[in-house]
Design a protein that fits this description.
Elements: H1 11-25, E1 43-52, E2 56-57, E3 63-64, H2 71-83, E4 87-97, E5 100-105, E6 112-114, H3 116-125, E7 132-138, H4 140-151, E8 159-165, H5 190-198, E9 203-207, E10 224-227, H6 239-250
Parallel strand pairs: 1-4, 1-7, 7-8, 8-9, 9-10
Antiparallel strand pairs: 2-3, 4-5, 5-6
Length: 254
Amino acid sequence: MNFMKLLTVSQINLAAAVLTSLALHGCGSGNDAHLSVQGEHESVHLLLFGGNRSCKSSTDSIPSPVTMDMAPRAIGLINRLRSGGGTAEVLTSCFIDPDKILMSRNFSPKFDTTNPETLIDQAVADIDANQRIFIIGHSYGGWIAMKIAEKISSRSAQVASLITIDAISHRGCTYSNWTNCLAAPQDFSKESLDEVKANTLHWANFYQTTTPYLHSGSIAQADVNLELQASHFTIDTNEAVWRHADRMLTGIEP
């Protein structure tokens, strides 16, 4: 699957995305030194976490993490990496309700059912410090991504790139108290956020405020903070996010 063939945005949106990408080049920190082209035959571990109800029904009408909206984008990035001789191990998950997650390895149509806390523990246990770790998470999945980055030092490892997309707290935003759904994940203390940053070489945080009752926000510890013109339900496929992800994963300028 060719990544560029997956892009269906209009020429106007594509031009806007290019301008956004150029802006990102000036929004980073000293960690931009880590964006150089990686060596051939690189081994990558990609963790991709969708948000609540991000599981899409497959042809047999069964919700699956393989068919969530972010999956085609991730597959395109992986194919680009593999075309350069690299290898990728992938963990993909999506929520079907706030306490129930479907999890697939390497986009297998066979998946396991688990809960957020168990998923975090399993993902951390699977970390191999010899692989470059890339974590991408949207909504509740952004919360999952941050929790894994917070705990990854227990594996003597570091996250090469963390991309949070309108991250919302699984614990704080419970649909019974919407005031906890209006900022960056509120159950992370400053110390926890500092730990996420300490364990991460490059952290890009994307958010929106178009959906008035459900949105994240800027996170001081992130290297890049960018507000996008999107809703909470469409930002996970926003062109600017995935151009940045492509830059992080492949080390090639998009």
